[in-house]
Amino acid sequence: MARKPMMAGNWKMNNTVAEAVVLTQELSNRYKGSWSDRAEVVICPPYVDLKPAVTVLDFDKTKIAVGAQNVYWEPKGAFTGEISIPMIKEIGCTHCIVGHSERRELFGETNEDVNRKVKALLAANMTPIVCVGESLAVRDEGTTDEYVTAQVRAAFAGVEPNDVARSIVAYEPIWAIGTGRTATPEQAETVCAAIRVTLAEQFGPEAAECVRILYGGSVNPGNVEGLMAKSDIDGGLVGGASLDAASFAQLVEACL
Ligand SMILES: O=C(CO)COP(=O)(O)O
């Protein structure tokens, strides 16, 4: 089954509003939706940049979608410092990263939190980009597949197959994030294939065949082609290289 490739940029905690406007203008000048029948492009800026990014990118023109990097599952209330799904949806976000390893490691996000966020986003008809990935210690123990597939099962526990089918999974080995040390295409494909097998076992082969599985971790214009050539890798979730319009454009072109 042909899955539409996706290139997603995770800006992390980078770019003020003024900087975000410049970068999104550069992106908008480059794309103008010319590739949109062959790939989906999403950028995930910090919260304060979301509305300016939606405005500048003008999805109808560029087909570049905007996602948040995190969200809380309750719709409103006394949750100081949190941002709700209705808030990001109203300003035009369609996607949201969930369970990034930085949120799990630095902010104590658990598999249960990830599951709540995934369910709440799907209930709001938004697209979760669910991040999973092992530490170097887990890889050295030889239990990567078990660890990552357990994260996938936990993230989608209790979710209906048709909702799983419209979700995105991003496999991001922690040891490859921001380190310049990319997983080899073979290493990445092995885990992405294991993720798809797990999804098929849990939710049926049809749903599993629809799920886009992205690879993330030091993706750059020099290594993207080899990764994208793998059958279970449907795109990338990119940090550093998404902060520069020219290099992000190269990544998008590589997945067309
Ligand atoms: O964490 C990542 C994307 O979510 C990957 O970051 P880098 O591309 O900077 O390694």
TrEMBL record:
CDD domains reported for this sequence: TIM (cd00311)
GO cellular component, as recorded: cytosol
Listed InterPro entries: Aldolase_TIM, TIM_sf, TrioseP_Isoase_bac/euk, Triosephosphate_isomerase, Triosephosphate_isomerase_AS
Pathway linked to the protein: Carbohydrate biosynthesis; gluconeogenesis; Carbohydrate degradation; glycolysis; D-glyceraldehyde 3-phosphate from glycerone phosphate: step 1/1
Domain of life of the native organism: Bacteria
Functional note: Involved in the gluconeogenesis. Catalyzes stereospecifically the conversion of dihydroxyacetone phosphate (DHAP) to D-glyceraldehyde-3-phosphate (G3P).
PANTHER family: TRIOSEPHOSPHATE ISOMERASE
Protein name: Triosephosphate isomerase
